[in-house]
């Protein structure tokens, strides 16, 4: 059990540290990052319950709905909502890259507990694949969400609707597409590899872009 928990936690912590230490201007207070991580962990339980109800009540009847509604929209919306409520107006959110730090924190909290539960149920032999795919993808969805939340916070008021839509809509679409590949394609690996390559490229590009943007005073949202 110790080995399973360690294997379940390790990739999430490693990815969180990677993005956390890339904050070159002013590293975020570790207690806030940990708090957002824990919120992500706690988010697993209500989401699992809602997904179970949707399945039992036959609300989700096909793989497309399962991918984009039950997984993509449900999971990304709650992460986005907690970021908007829990950190968007916080005084420590004072730089564009901070959105990425907090976005990856909550996403990786969610992914870490989900990963542990999967490994407990299916075995340690899946640890490497889980680290490369579900845990990494959650981290990258968090990067993208956090980038656009940063744009939302530090942009002029007239541009905020666009960033608000992208901060939720793009992670939902990418997450839904990720799940649809896994659920619908027999030879899913052939499409998953280029998709993950694109996801890494796009996320790292956005992270680099965020580090070069000088924050400007934002109006209240």
UniProtKB/TrEMBL annotation:
Signal peptide per UniProt: none
Keyword Protease included in the entry's annotation: yes
Listed EC numbers: 3.4.-.-
Keyword terms, alphabetized: Cell membrane, Hydrolase, Membrane, Protease, Transmembrane, Transmembrane helix
Coarse class of the protein's main subcellular location: membrane
Residues that span the membrane, as ranges: 6-21, 33-54, 66-88, 100-119, 131-150, 162-181, 187-204
Molecular functions (GO terms): peptidase activity
Coiled coil: none
GO CC field: plasma membrane
Family the UniProt entry places it in: Belongs to the protease PrsW family.
Function: Involved in the degradation of specific anti-sigma factors.
Record's bilayer topology term: Multi-pass membrane protein
Protein name: Protease PrsW
Localization in the cell: Cell membrane
GO-annotated biological processes: proteolysis
Entry-linked PANTHER family: PROTEASE PRSW (PTHR36844:SF1)
